Amino acid sequence: MPIVRRLLESSLYCENPRESHAFYRDVLGLATLFADDRLVALDAGGGTVLLLFRRGASASGVTIPGGWIPPHDGGGRVHLAFAIDPDQLAALERRLQHLGIAVDSRVTWARGGRSIYFRDPEGHSVECASPGVWEVY
Amino acid sequence: MPIVRRLLESSLYCENPRESHAFYRDVLGLATLFADDRLVALDAGGGTVLLLFRRGASASGVTIPGGWIPPHDGGGRVHLAFAIDPDQLAALERRLQHLGIAVDSRVTWARGGRSIYFRDPEGHSVECASPGVWEVY
């Protein structure tokens, strides 16, 4: 029996969180929950939060009024995926084209879902996937 | 207006995905959706999926029957968080203690939520956070 409810926060580590912030706000329409020099938090919908950390800025841990956040940091160009309604896929493609953002790939899944892949400003691989990719969608 | 519904997939990059698979299955109770040598996918609840990638195995892209998955890879010991109901926090602490897993930190948030932090087998920083950490919980 799972004792957690869902994934709440996913992290990207960025050289320039301000630029990535603008990307996720303007391309995917995510609302800002919090922003300072170390961290931007965005409402990704459905009770999930995308965290954009300045690379290296959390590597020694962070003391906050309510306690201490243990060290973490990341590198590379990682993968993350957003759920998207099927009728929004075409709108997203139009928005990407309008903004001059290349689509890396389009995938049709065995269960019937479809995904498109593109890159954020730091090269992280962003997927938007319609229902059918996983049965838990 | 957001054009995505929520975060669907979050990725961890692991030297030993099998060991991490056992951890997330046995400690947090996540169910397996898919597992091969490159990738383990776990149902994290609420329509979210935790992906455990073998480090380096996706760095050149992956061709699948339905298309092509662009290259991605990651390093470091990153942060991810799960939502947990307040009445499950004590059960989780007991489970961690029983399994000999140290709690790195406990945080009480200004809005009233509480978090505990611990490490997965590869040192990724796992948070379990009760409602109140974000208003979107």
Give the helix proportion of chain A (percent range). 10-25%
Number of strands of chain A: 11
Strand content of chain A: 35-45%
End-to-end separation of chain A: 19 Å
- The CATH first-level class of the largest domain in chain A comes to Alpha Beta
Give the overall pLDDT of chain A as a whole number.
94
Query: In the CATH hierarchy, what is the architecture of the largest domain in chain A at level 2?
Result: Roll
Query: What is the count of helical runs of chain A?
Result: 2
Q: CATH homologous superfamily name of the largest domain in chain A?
A: 2,3-Dihydroxybiphenyl 1,2-Dioxygenase, domain 1
Largest sheet of chain A, described in full? 4 strands, mixed
Stretches with pLDDT under 50, minimum 5 residues of chain A: none
| Largest interface (C-beta under 8 Å) | A-B, 75 and 75 residues
Secondary-structure element order of chain A, N to C: EHEEEEEEEHEEE
